[in-house]
Design a protein that fits this description.
Blueprint (H helix, E strand, L loop, with lengths): L4 H8 L5 H20 L2 E12 L26 E13 L8 E9 L1 H6 L10 E12 L5 E9 L19 H5 L3 E10 L4 E8 L30 E9 L11 E11 L8 E13 L5 E12 L11 E13 L4 E12 L15 E11 L5 E12 L19 E12 L1
Antiparallel strand pairs: 1-2, 1-16, 2-3, 3-4, 4-5, 5-6, 6-7, 7-8, 8-9, 9-10, 10-11, 11-12, 12-13, 13-14, 14-15, 15-16
């Protein structure tokens, strides 16, 4: 065994023996090994190829992998690195006072659009999640998350590999993404589980504050009390096996309400997000269906800038068919509508007040550990107010329809 110079010096004058030092070093290494051995390392490298036929600007905003939303540069008509995710975790064991943790590091262009930095300044390296898990032996046991965690509502996930389609729905786009706070879940029975939590703000900034913009100092205008927080509640139902082919189907719903410093460039705003969704098995074992409904309201903020109340709503239908062990077909049809006028939840060129979107995805797992998908998406401006997409001169829209053909290759480890 190799000793440091300090230990060898003490041994030379008889202050310690090399045998006792070896035992102490071995004990320390065993303790470290025990702690690290239960840690799980995982993640993925996410890449894509986009082709947007028919126009050169104004790509629709459907979350960060759509190409034009938020701080993410456009991915239209090119080869892309979407993200690199590195996860470290220790799941809870079965003991009454179990503990664990989850850390998800997010890197690449999608990380800047997620916007979870503690400074409010988006960058290509961020923490998506970092929380401690704790179990308290109350009834069937309450499982807690304390730290930064993904939003507790929604049909789709921030992680590309977890979704049936490559691009996100508009419903995902209007949902919150992450929170800094405390969230607990309780399994009432095999059929019912409930959850509740509190967070600093509605927005994604790590730590967060009630300041008027992410990362700013001071309180909101008008001032919010220190006790003003974001609150959330969820419920989930699972059908029992005795229900035949419906056994294992699930229904979930949730609501989140709180202040979002980034909701308005002038003053921030109070936001409310409501979600309900279901995944339903069918008599055809390989076919599963789903439905989701999202609603978001940004409250009237008359105290600064007379910002009116605005809202957005989305309903989406899903179908997934596992044709073979390696081949699956995934479909999504959705209708999105929001407040008309200058103030919108999804504002800017390329986001009309009413949108019909259809998405078809073919997934074929040819290589080991590789998820490979080919997707075709059609977005249609349905409010009748005029073209929303395209634009060859000064970005002026010229088309009612937007098309995306994308290939998505993800290596998971």
């Amino acid at each position: 065994m190799k000793f440091n110079k300090w230990t060898l010096g003490l041994a030379a004058i008889g202050a310690v023996s090399l045998a006792s030092a070896a035992r102490a070093e071995e004990a320390k290494m065993n303790t470290l090994g025990t702690a690290v051995s239960s840690t799980v390392l995982s993640g993925y490298v996410d890449t894509s190829i986009h082709w947007n036929p028919g126009y050169s600007a104004n790509v629709p905003t459907y979350s960060f992998n759509g190409g034009a939303g938020g701080t993410n540069p456009s991915k239209a008509d090119g080869f892309n690195l979407n993200s690199v995710k590195l996860s470290l975790s220790k799941p809870e064991d079965e003991s009454e006072w179990a503990a664990g943790y989850q850390v998800d590091l997010f890197m690449g262009p999608d990380a800047s659009a997620l916007d979870t930095s503690s400074t409010g300044v988006a960058n290509d390296f961020t923490i998506e999640q970092a929380y401690v898990t704790l179990r308290t032996p109350v009834g069937n046991g309450i499982d807690w998350k304390l730290g930064v965690f993904d939003t507790v509502i929604g049909y789709e996930s921030t992680a590309d590999p977890n979704n049936p389609n490559y691009t996100r729905s508009y419903g995902y786009t209007i949902e919150p993404t992450t929170h800094t706070g405390l969230y607990g879940t309780y399994k009432v029975s095999d059929l019912l589980s409930v959850g509740a939590g509190v967070a600093n703000t509605f927005g994604p900034t790590i730590g967060g504050s009630l300041a008027t913009s992410p990362g700013a100092s001071g309180r909101s205008n008008p001032p919010k009390a220190e006790s003003y927080k974001t609150y959330m509640a969820t419920v989930a139902l699972t059908a029992p096996n005795s229900w035949g082919f419906l056994g294992g189907s699930s229904l979930s719903a949730g609501v989140i309400n709180g202040f979002n410093p980034g909701a308005s460039a002038v003053s921030g705003a109070t936001q409310t997000a409501v979600y309900a969704g279901a995944t339903v098995n069918t008599p055809i074992t390989a076919l599963k269906t789903g439905i989701s409904w999202d609603y978001e309201n940004v409250a009237n903020q008359n105290y600064v800038g007379n910002i009116p109340e605005h809202w957005a709503e989305d309903i989406a239908l899903y179908a997934s068919y596992q044709a073979t062990e390696k081949l699956s077909l995934n479909y999504r049809a959705e209708y999105f509508w929001q407040t008309e006028g200058a103030t919108q939840v999804l504002a800017g060129v390329g986001n009309p007040s009413k949108i019909l979107a259809l998405t078809g995805t073919v997934q074929y797992d040819l290589w080991k550990n590789v998820l490979s998908r080919l997707e075709v998406r059609w977005d249609h401006e349905a409010d009748g107010t005029g073209p929303a997409y395209g634009g060859q001169v000064s970005g002026v829209p010229t088309l009612h329809n937007a098309w995306l053909i994308a290939a998505n290759i993800i290596y998971k480890f």
